[in-house]
Known about the structure:
This protein has 151 residues and is an alpha+beta fold. The chain has helices at residues 2-22, 113-116, and strands at residues 40-44, 53-60, 68-69, 74-79, 82-85, 105-111, 122-134, 137-150.
Amino acid sequence: MIKKVILAIVIVLIMGGTYFLFKNYKEPPVQVLDEYLKNATMEIKEGTLTNAGCTIIITDTEKEEKHTYGEDYDIYVYKDDKWEPLNTDERWYHPIGILPNKDNKIQMDINWEPAYGKLTPGKYKLEKKAAVSLDGSNIGNAKVETEFIIN
């Protein structure tokens, strides 16, 4: 009987300790390494920009290491002489990695209406992140961006 009580106390202590250890756990911030994307650009394909989305073309001519791009993105609006992130509760995307093709390009259709709604007239910035790898190991993220105007 005493062994069962001691075992129960040990289990409670382990569970409680684990709870307190992880209850305030936050993912460590990902190191932003923008200097690693100096050979990457992003542009909006001509004729595709609407207030609900666009097609982007990323050109990444990095020779040493390939960068992996995801479907996720952020949109910022230019207000009061600074960039402010647009708020959204809809943060969904497929966690996939996309590599540039043999021409060093990635083309993606982006429909931001489900997440941000239709954009009102103004100046905006679209930002995408890329995983940066050195010697085959992911060491952080970098971002590539493009600005656009909705009339």
